[in-house]
Amino acid sequence: MTLRLFAFPVQLAVLVAGSLGASGARAARPEGVVAVPEPDPEGIANGQVAMSCAWPTAVAVTDTNGTLCTGSLVHPRIVMYAAHCGGGDKKILFGQKIATPFKSLSTDLCLANPDYAGVSDQEHDWAFCRLASEVTELPITPVMYGCETAMVQEGQTIAVTGFGITSDDDDGGVKNWGLTPINNVHSMTVDVGGFGDPGICPGDSGGPALLRYPDGSWHVLGIASTLTGNCGGEGTHSLAWNAVPWIEQESGIDITPCHDVDGTWNPTHRCAGFYADEAGVGHGDFTTWCPGTPASGSSVTCGAAFDAVPDDTPPTVTITAPLSGSFPDLSSLMTDIEIDAQDGDGWGVVAVRIKVNGAEQPVSDKDAPYAFPVQFPKGMYELIAVAEDAAGLIAESQPVVLEIGMDEEPVDTTTNGETGESGATGTPGETDAPDVTGEVPTTDASNGEGPGSTTTPITATDPPMSGEDGCGCRSQPPAYSALWLLALLVRRRRSVHA
What we know:
Helix content is 2%, strand content 31%. It is mostly beta strands and 498 residues long. Strands 2, 4, 5, 6, 7, 8, 9 and 10 form an 8-stranded antiparallel beta sheet that branches. A 6-stranded antiparallel β-barrel has the order 11-12-13-16-15-14. Strands 18, 20, 21, 23, 24 and 25 form a 6-stranded mixed beta sheet that branches. The radius of gyration is 27 Å and the shape is elongated.
């Protein structure tokens, strides 16, 4: 099948074997094994091959049909790309070549905009994937938003990058880039490149058009949608900021760290540290996640920085559920530990963690509402929530004490006139010691759930706490180093900011 070249838009998705679709429908998968040829193309049409770690947030988006598109990391867990590439099961490849990606990351959700109406609907050609775990090693390229969108003007020079073909008879799979002008700005799309300037080609679908801000950071303004003419002709990009409310609603993740969803400037501690390298320059390689890649400071594009006023006050933190209580009839308890953490006029809460019997658990939640689903085996547990703000100040909550499967027994004073041992677990002098092997994420589990999560087993070797010898009451539990949780997993429970 050959690429049909007409003077009307064609979609830019490409099959990595080199068989290209030109109409609004996706091309059929070719017979045989999909493979990527060895020769490197010379660069995006009239552009150049990206050096190692240049444009590190530009990623390849692939599926089981062999379809190749491009996307951009606009949040540590969100990759934005084009709706005509489809939703469903996707793999996200980080690196310079899809034949040898540094990292292939799984996703737990990929959705195409349901309002997308086909090849002529560039205005709604957006989609996203939510990664199963955060990418914290790279500075992101966020979406332009709020007052920043006024920077997009005709004649402005921007960068385009993607993994597509570079001429009509080439094969895709290598990251290429070029600097090119904005030709026209419309209400929901922008036309870029072509006419001898660097331009996009099939396989660049979903790839970013990037604008550099005065502070050196790069931001996504467009999502590559269609191409008019042949490879390297004028490309039409969907304006990325129009996709933000839908992506936030469907993903449950705030992807505008400097603004509210209505465009109001309201920076959080994440409104900083954006990708800020020189155009086409890379640092290090992807085997070590591009160390030394420059990142911007706190953003001030539409107002004061989040850290403009010093933050000397620790956050406040409270466990709102469960409350302290006894559950003598249960052999185990599955419950959500729900936490309220606020930083007042400070820089914001960056993480909430939980201590169980004095041992801080190896998971954290970075976004409100904060919650930890936990299964407790039989025993007594002291829970303390820990909140850390962006200034590094830490606060702890008042403890909550849970008693599970532990019937009170009266003190035995009838045996030889001596006080008997506490029957805290139902039998004097005896404690339950269940097998409490469980799993917890080894990486930060903020927003974390779904397939692809990495887990590591933990085992408690000491028994749960019982009452003090010689006392029929219970004291506050001491700080044990053992991890008592059968399972402590952060479940994604998000609300979109207003």
